[in-house]
């Protein structure tokens, strides 16, 4: 079975890609570049590095721009999936959805219309367990966005490791946040993973934050040997 992966460059879509590749053939990545930083459907921090990540993975990338308007962006997603299906003869689409019914249900409807299988390998998995899996398998993931109290700019650019996971779990206990960001609390960017043939090295970055909202922006990066 040939699969296309909805790919944002964050931890969930990258882990879903790895899990799908263990069972089926991943033929391509599909990325929507949203002009709206508050898109309901699409991850936006550092979405520009997905081209480097695709190169690191050795996978073709179908990349399309969208204005990111609620619901209207779904038509852009459907067109991108349709193009990928035709070009790579896809049988199904992989998502990194864990808890978001909003996202999963809309992708499912698009897949139904295009006669594609919708595969959500992370669906309803324990969030701490998913973070632990990333660390155990050697993923290098940084926090590229924070959007909830009590997170602040000191979290931006931090790598997810066992200590950071413990801090997130404690914040879940204290404040009820989702440790892997399923409530939109954090966004992430993957710099290295088991399937990457090279890793991303950040050459220039910037941080923009105000209170409990902020982003870590990768301004320049390159691929280097692992």
Question: Can you tell me about this structure?
Answer:
The chain is α/β, with parallel strands linked by helices and 226 residues long. It has 2 domains: 2-119, Rossmann fold (3-Layer(aba) Sandwich); 129-225, putative n-type atp pyrophosphatase, domain 2. The protein is built from 6 helices and 9 strands; from the N terminus they run βαβαβαβαβαβαβββ. The protein has helices at 11-21, 50-57, 72-88, 101-113, 127-136, 162-175, and strands at residues 2-6, 25-34, 61-66, 92-94, 117-119, 140-147, 186-192, 198-210, 213-225. The strands form 2 sheets. Strands 3-2-1-4-5 form a 5-stranded parallel sheet, sandwiched between helices. Strands 7-6-9-8 form a 4-stranded antiparallel sheet. A hairpin with a 2-residue loop joins strand 8 (198-210) and strand 9 (213-225). The longest helix is centred in the middle third of the chain and has 17 residues, at 72-88. The protein is globular. The two termini are 30 Å apart. The model has no long low-confidence stretch (mean pLDDT 94).
Structural class: alpha/beta
Mean pLDDT: 94
Name the beta content range: 25-35%
The quaternary organization reads as single chain
CATH fold-level topology of the largest domain: Rossmann fold
Order of H and E elements: EHEHEHEHEHEHEEE
Radius of gyration, in angstroms, nearest whole number:
17 Å
Low-confidence stretches: none
How far apart are the termini? Answer: 30 Å
Number of strands: 9
Main sheet characteristics? 5 strands, parallel
Classify the helix fraction into a percent range. Answer: 25-40%
CATH class of the largest domain: Alpha Beta
Strands of the biggest beta sheet: in what spatial order?
3-2-1-4-5
Count of individual domains: 2
* CATH architecture tag of the largest domain: 3-Layer(aba) Sandwich
The backbone outline, from C-alpha atoms, is globular
**Fourth-tier CATH superfamily name of the largest domain:** HUPs
| Number of helical stretches of at least 4 residues | 6
């Amino acid at each position: 079975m040939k699969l296309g992966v909805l790919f944002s460059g964050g931890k969930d879509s990258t882990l879903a890609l790895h899990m799908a590749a263990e069972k089926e053939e991943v033929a391509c990545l599909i990325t929507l570049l949203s002009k709206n930083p508050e898109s309901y459907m699409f991850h936006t921090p550092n979405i520009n590095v997905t081209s480097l990540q695709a190169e690191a993975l050795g996978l073709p990338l179908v990349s399309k721009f969208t204005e990111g308007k609620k619901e209207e962006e779904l038509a852009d997603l459907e067109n991108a999936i349709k193009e990928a299906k035709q070009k790579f003869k896809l049988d199904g689409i992989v998502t990194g959805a864990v808890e978001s019914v909003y996202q999963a249900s809309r992708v499912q409807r698009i897949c139904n219309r295009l006669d594609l299988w919708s595969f959500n390998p992370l669906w309803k998995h324990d969030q701490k367990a998913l973070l632990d899996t990333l660390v155990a398998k050697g993923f290098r993931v940084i926090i590229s966005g924070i959007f909830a109290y009590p997170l602040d700019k000191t979290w931006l650019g931090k790598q997810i490791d066992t200590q950071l996971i413990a801090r997130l779990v404690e914040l879940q206990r204290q404040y009820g946040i989702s440790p892997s960001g399923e409530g939109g609390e954090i966004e992430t960017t993957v710099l290295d993973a088991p399937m990457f043939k090279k890793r991303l090295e950040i050459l220039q970055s910037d941080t923009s934050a105000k209170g409990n909202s902020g982003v870590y922006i990768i301004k320049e990066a390159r691929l280097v040997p692992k």
